[in-house]
Amino acid sequence: MTLICLCSVPLLINQIIKGYNEGILKPESDIYDCKNTYYLEIEGDMDQLKQLEKLDFPEIYEYSYQDAAYESSSAGSSSSSQITKLNDEFMKKAKIKGTYPQNENEVLVNEYTSIPIGETIKIENHDFYITGMVQSYTIERDKYNDFNNFNYWFINGEIFMKKEAFDKMFSSSNPVLCIWYDNFEKRDQYLQMIEDADIQDISIYDMGMQEVTFYISSIEEIPLLVDNEMMVIGLIMFFVLCYYLNKNYLLNHQRDYMMMRIIGMTKREMLIKELEKGLYSFIIINIINIALILLEESYLDILYIPIREFLIMSFICLGICMFIYIVPLYVLWNDLMNIDNGDGLI
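Above: the chain sequence. Below: its structure as tokens.
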């Protein structure tokens, strides 16, 4: 019985630890209504975007971007960053700190680059002066102390360059079409129009609704108590060992079973007696399992009972208990019957 507990308890505790780890590490996804960026951003080649422009969208904007390296004294070097060609009308909707670029050598930076206004950066061996910063928008959150707010940006990209400077510096770029919408009903209508146009291989991003995944706990994952596979092997080994231990017990107490037969105890009654032993052992094993499960949950300060695993392990333990108490009796039964015939046991 003790040997069976040594395997069943660790397996159940492993399930508790798994449930605990999944609980503390389970990410939570929140969907945000980004009211300041109600537009669909569509990437494709120039011909595909020209087809979309022909559809009846009331407010559309175009811009393009290219990846390039820049050097900054405050932020260091960037191996590959998005350099965006400014669309003056579109950027009027953005929240900009500082002043909007007026000359070819003036640029904007996105707030998350941490490059201050007034600094000079180098792009493709050309110096550019930072006149302003595209600021983020903030959505307040109250649900978790670790994440009090969510920031989102008006447009993707680190550096925003005047059209004249961009065209001189880059011979090619990636075009983007922005379709502005007033509400999500309009957005769905525009998405249906794009789908009906059946334009293949374009990428659509909804900037007005963003899903963000948060890991809400910084608690480290607890390692499993034992290896499950090794415990299953151990359970099988202990099962075989318990069987032979009980069989050996019966061999050492043959005289007791002889006396039971002599006084008229039937096979059925003797089997019931062994069945009761197995049932008592099963009850004790389950009591020990429950006690240790509660102790583990108290330590982890959680309330998680692996009901399915507990029931499965209970049925396995019940089957083992019944087997190791009843089957040895069947094995020795012929010897006991020989006593009834006066043959005796050696």
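Confidence is low (pLDDT under 50) at residues 339-346.
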